[in-house]
Amino acid sequence: MTERDEFSPLTKRAVALRAGYCCSFSDCSQLTVGPSEESSSAVAGIGDAAHICAAAPGGRRYDLSMSPEQRSHIENAIWLCANHARLIDRDSVLYTADNLREMKRTHEAACAEKVRKASSQSTLTDDLLAVGPGIVCIGELRGFDESEWTLDLKHFLVGDVSALIQFVDTFPRVGREDRFILVNSIGDGRALTSAPAVSKSETGYLVRCPVAPRSPRTMAQQLGSQWAISRATNDLFVEKGQIARVSGLASLPQIIRSCLSIQRGESPFHPNFGARFAEYFAAFRDSPWLGQLLKLEVIRQSAIPYNDDVMKRQYTPFHCVDRVWSVEILAEAPTKNRLPTRFELEVNGVGRWQCDVSIFLSSERPAAAVKIR
């Protein structure tokens, strides 16, 4: 029996995400996944990661010059509904490899444009939502008051319904820094006071979240003095004969760079401190969702309090950021492990404010990897 060069589960997941779980065939865009009535955790799927050039000899568009790695690479995959996956394997004259690659490129470009437009809107619309550190979903904020926010989770990007159930069941044992919800569309989040309540909705899962009051922020002008770090060398430097210092709003870019450049678990003194920028970049580098995922991390650093057991106090890592408007990656790849990124933020005492910061992305494996299901 001829061995097929199949796609890995991670590749299948990635090509589906890049297609928005909709068929990439021209003029189709059929949604290929949704809830199943078999159980509260069941999912019905009619999509397939199809090979552009066949996985084995004898298949349509098989290319002898390709290596097994190339045949099983995401560049040889196109996400299709079941009908069109069968159709392209019945006519290799009409559906050439170049034709399918162009379909894929056009569809993914359209998906990326929709994501970019969603990120620039301030209305409550389908966007990314996070429930704790292990669950990120496409969905919307359905309602909120001072003590409860209601989320409609429509599709899991990170984690799955089992992870959501586990989060609810084990909530009393979840660390304080991991009890949160984040909403990209409003650039804000809240700490959870108790376990969410989950029920099934027409589109997915309705999650009622008991929330704490908004975490207090410091006025930017009141940010304390700290040693200044050179942007070029990341070292201390001398100014007017003394080691330079920064304070107030001038220290905020340095705070952002420091918080987002530290991976969680990296600091021996603050094991629960740190961001997932490097982790998300490694897992979603080629995904149109990358910018939205990084925005979630910025929201967490801005809105969710960190419990500092060393200093015996609680504060949001960014201290003075009231809202996250946008996060924009300014380069396709890091240079010397530094990723130039633009932040547009609502800063307490200042208003809408923008800065460009290069975030250090460690090449070492993160302590807690993203689980893509």
Defining key terms:
alpha+beta; seven-stranded antiparallel beta sheet; disordered C terminus; 3 domains; Nuclear Transport Factor 2, Chain: A; three-stranded antiparallel beta sheet; 8 helices; 20 strands; 373 residues
Notes on the structure:
- By secondary structure, this protein is an alpha+beta fold.
- It has three domains: 9-119, no CATH class; 127-210, no CATH class; 220-360, Nuclear Transport Factor 2, Chain: A (Roll).
- Helices cover 23% and strands 27% of the residues.
- It contains eight helices and 20 strands.
- The chain has helices at residues 9-18, 68-71, 82-88, 97-119, 161-169, 252-261, 277-284, 290-303, and strands at residues 33-35, 43-45, 47-51, 77-81, 127-131, 136-144, 148-158, 180-183, 188-191, 197-200, 205-210, 226-227, 238-239, 242-243, 245-246, 306-308, 313-315, 321-329, 338-347, 351-360.
- The strands form seven sheets. Strands 9-8-5-6-7-11-10 form a seven-stranded antiparallel sheet, with helices on both faces. A three-stranded antiparallel sheet has the order 18-19-20.
- Helix 7 packs antiparallel against helix 8 (290-303).
- The longest helix is centred in the N-terminal third of the chain and has 23 residues, at 97-119.
- It is globular, with a radius of gyration of 23 Å.
- Mean pLDDT is 85; it is low at 119-125 and 365-373.
Query: What is the overall shape?
Result: globular
Would you count the extended β strands for me? 20
CATH architecture of the largest domain: Roll
Spatially, the strands of the biggest sheet line up as 9-8-5-6-7-11-10
The termini sit apart by 30 Å
What's the number of domains?
3
Helix/strand class: alpha+beta
* CATH level-1 class of the largest domain: Alpha Beta
